[in-house]
Design brief:
By secondary structure, the chain is α/β, with parallel strands linked by helices. It has helices spanning 79-88, 106-117, 136-148, 167-180, 191-203, 210-214, 218-235, 247-258, 270-273, 298-310, 334-338, 353-362, 369-383; strands at 6-11, 14-16, 21-23, 25-29, 32-37, 43-48, 53-56, 58-63, 91-99, 124-125, 128-130, 153-157, 183-187, 239-241, 263-267, 315-316, 401-411, 430-440, 443-447, 450-451. Strands 8, 9, 10, 11, 12, 13, 14, 15 and 16 form a 9-stranded parallel β-sheet that branches. A 7-stranded mixed β-sheet has the order 3-2-7-17-18-19-20. Helix 4 crosses helix 7 and helix 7 (218-235) packs parallel to helix 8. The protein starts with 5 loop residues before the first strand and ends in a 24-residue tail after the last strand. It binds N-(aminocarbonyl)-beta-alanine (URP) and zinc ion (3 copies). One zinc ion is lined by residues 62, 64, 319, 321.
């Protein structure tokens, strides 16, 4: 026989899904998983997974790529470098934001982002729309039309001048999302309180990066989280509380769940392994850790870990939002050194997301392998309408696979991460466990830290409705 049963067989690995851990081979044809079993037949290509974990490719549903970020500031990643970094970190799908700038329609924003992404991606992608200008046209026409075309999620901000929506605008947007059956991600921080505190810090001469953290206190996040959940309750629509940094905001999520609200919660690596003290480093180095909400303290880290273990959080995402440290366009500008107010908010992290959770979470026994896969892949697919095409290893699913060496020890260093930033906040961190091979729709696209095939293999993914919108009460 010369005809092979499969295009590719991944042989000898340990398959890990959100539900199971078992030994089997995976047969792949035309980019899809077509068989799972012991001793599958010959294939045109065999990929040896002996000693490796075979997991669904990571899905990072919270990344910022090529997002306009203010005068003189340039995001460090375009779609090529951002998705390359994602791939090196074991991801096969990322979900960047498509920012509607004031005065633009959502269609205009989409046109720009699709043009930037087209032909440049190493992973599959799909956009969340950021609504910054909820005009009657946006709410009444564009949101329902775009939802039907597979743009089934939007994000709104309660903070950042130019982006933040007032409560009446948030309510109108949530109500429109209910009608269009889109899920809404909410950035919860009280902008008025923060602006007041920024003014106070500057008046007192406290302009160093550390005061980014003191001007965005836990109470400002907790209050906004409570308000967002209340607004969602008023119009009875599901929301996602993103990048939660502390116990008090988590308690708001838990209380809303007890009231019966359909919600999802997300935390990020920076809230597990960084603290506000990192913003206090000498020589303006603290600016490397400026993101919002800011990293807190040890107690908050422990709380976020417990939320990953006990289900307060459904999602663990990077909030990759890369800026160079050095000028041009980065954090260390003249203005940024005059006041933290001007330091762009965000840190890179799409490549280090999985290793940090594996090393600090699985290896320490805080979470098991199934939970690791749920938090890094499966739940993202379910929440954002990609399941079971993505997010699991099953017959009929896309053959997006990350082959993971659970014993590989690495010292995180910026040179290995493939992104456009000139630093990583995790430089020097020692981790155990690293992705060694990645398949995207059946093709080997990454091996030993190097993309094997060129950019442009990533596709744009239209999405179905969220599981939460389809009546599930949880993921
Ligand atoms: O500091 C952050 N997180 N910047 C990215 C934008 C956002 O709020 O998600
Ligand atoms: Zn043969
Ligand atoms: Zn945000
Ligand atoms: Zn973000």
């Amino acid at each position: 026989m010369t005809a092979h049963s499969f295009d590719t067989v991944v042989r000898g690995g340990t398959i890990v899904t959100a539900a199971d851990v078992y030994q089997a081979d995976i047969g792949i044809t035309d980019g899809k998983i077509v068989a799972i079993g012991r001793d599958l037949q010959e294939a045109a290509t065999t990929i040896d997974a002996t000693g490796l974990l075979v997991m669904p490719g990571g899905i990072d549903s919270h990344v910022h790529i090529a997002q306009p970020s203010g005068e003189g500031i340039v995001m460090a990643d375009d779609f090529e470098s951002g998705t390359r970094s994602a791939l090196l970190g074991g991801n096969t799908t990322v979900m960047p934001f498509c920012l509607q700038q004031k005065g633009d329609t959502l269609r205009e924003a989409l046109k720009k982002y699709h043009a930037l992404a087209e032909g440049n991606c190493f992973t599959d992608i799909s956009f969340h729309m950021i609504v910054s200008d909820p005009t009657p046209h946006v709410l009444g026409q564009e949101m329902p039309a775009l939802a039907e075309e597979g743009y089934t999620s939007i994000k709104v901000f309660m903070t950042y001048e130019g982006l933040r929506l007032r409560d009446d605008e948030i309510l109108a947007t949530l109500d429109a999302a209910k009608r269009s059956r889109q899920v809404v991600l909410v950035h919860c921080e009280n902008e008025d309180a923060i602006r007041y505190l920024i003014g106070r810090r500057e008046a007192d001469g406290d302009t160093a990066p550390y005061h980014h953290a003191t001007s965005r206190p836990i109470a400002a996040e907790r209050e906004a989280t409570h308000r967002a959940l209340s607004l969602a309750e008023i119009v009875d629509t599901p929301i996602v509380i993103v990048h939660v940094s502390n116990r008090e905001a988590m308690e708001e999520i838990s209380r809303a769940r007890l009231r019966g609200q359909k919600i999802a919660g997300e935390t990020c690596p920076q809230y597990l392994v960084l603290t506000a003290d990192d913003l206090d480093l000498e020589d303006f180095e603290g600016a490397k850790f400026v993101c919002s909400p800011p990293p807190r303290d040890k107690e908050s880290q422990d709380a976020c870990w417990s939320g990953l273990e006990n289900g307060v959080f459904d999602l663990y995402s990077s909030d990759h939002c890369p800026f160079r440290f050095d000028d041009p366009g980065g954090k260390k500008t003249e203005k940024g050194m005059q006041s933290f107010r001007w330091i762009p908010n965000g840190i890179p992290g799409v490549a280090t997301r999985l290793p940090i959770l594996f090393s600090e979470g699985v290896k320490t026994g805080r979470i098991d392998l199934n939970r690791f896969v749920a938090l890094t892949s499966t739940n993202h697919a379910k929440l954002y309408g990609l399941y079971p095409q993505k997010g699991t290893i099953a017959v009929g699913s896309d053959a997006d696979l990350t082959l993971w060496d659970p014993e590989l020890r690495k010292t995180i260093t910026n040179d290995d991460l493939g992104h456009g930033a000139d630093y990583t906040p995790y430089e020097g961190m020692e981790v155990t466990g690293w992705p060694v091979k990645v398949l995207l729709r059946g093709d080997l696209v990454m091996e030993k830290g190097v993309p094997v095939l060129g950019k442009g293999r990533g596709r744009y993914l239209p999405r179905k409705r969220s599981n939460l919108i389809n009546g599930e009460t949880s993921l």
